[in-house]
Specification:
Elements (H helix, E strand, L loop, with lengths): L1 H10 L1 H26 L2 E2 L7 E2 L3 H7 L2 H32 L6 H9 L6 H16 L10 H29 L3 H9 L4 H12 L1 H12 L7 H7 L5 H4 L2 H7 L1
Helix pairs in contact: 4-7, 4-10, 5-7, 6-11, 8-9
């Protein structure tokens, strides 16, 4: 039965892949190509576009607020990418060991990923403003505190999701290689560096690509909730800058 099903899938794989492929073309590729073309046009709707070359890019690169939003988004993406992947791997590594309640810990760490960005923004705004009030500071009136508050918020939300993927990768690392390394006298860090990390190299690259892909989507909901008019110019990411513009 399984063999017959496998043969059918290999024979008709294109038919099975067609719905997803069509959805990908219609929902992503075509809008992407249209967006790239419209970036070289002057338009109010997609039907009245007029090609103007690089004028839009020249105007954007001459706008200090845009450059700051781009830099802010890039810095946020770099910092959160490093923190999320390092912490997610560390937690995944600990939870793949034989510890009591590992399934409960997995659920607890993953749960923030199920909560909407707007709700998380309000929760962390109240928490962090309460802590900063001790020093007479406010998260929503400081670009510096706002940046690190946003880093904490984004990392707290995304670490659980990345952790699940790292756990799947760690479980695929051959146990016999780890056992052989232990017999040869390798300590825990040597096993991680020379066996575990090379064994999940593909997962690490995938996680980095997924994280860096957020440079243009660094967290509209969270930023929109955390900042105020007083720090619009210094606290904008690309999403909020485009929205306000």
């Amino acid at each position: 039965m399984i063999s017959m099903a496998g043969k059918a899938i290999r024979k008709w794989w294109a038919l099975f892949a067609l719905p997803t492929f069509a959805a990908f073309i219609i929902g992503f590729v075509i809008p992407f190509i249209m967006g790239v073309y419209l970036s070289f046009c002057k338009f109010t709707t997609v039907t009245d576009s007029e090609f103007i070359g690089l004028k839009n890019y020249q105007k954007a690169l001459a706008d200090k607020e845009f450059l700051h939003a781009l830099g802010f988004s890039t810095a946020l993406t770099i910092v959160t990418t490093v923190v999320i992947n390092v912490v997610a791997f560390a937690i995944a590594y600990m939870l793949t060991k034989a510890i009591k309640g590992s399934n409960i810990f997995r659920s607890v760490f993953f749960m923030p990923n199920l909560i909407g960005g707007i709700i998380l923004g309000y929760i962390w705004m109240l928490l962090l403003n309460g802590i900063l009030a001790h020093w007479g500071r406010a998260l929503t009136y400081s670009a510096t505190y706002g940046f690190w508050g946003l880093v904490i918020l984004v990392c707290w939300q995304q670490i659980g999701y990345m952790m699940i993927i790292y756990i799947a990768g760690l479980q695929a690392v051959p146990e016999d290689m780890l056992e052989a390394a232990r017999i040869d006298g390798a300590n825990r860090w040597q096993k991680v560096w020379h066996i575990t990390l090379p064994g999940i190299r593909g997962i690490v690259v995938l996680m980095m690509v997924l994280s860096l892909g957020n440079v243009l989507n660094a967290g509209f909901d969270q930023v929109f909730n955390l900042y105020t008019k007083a720090v619009y110019e210094s606290g904008d990411i690309l999403d909020t800058f485009i929205y306000r513009l």
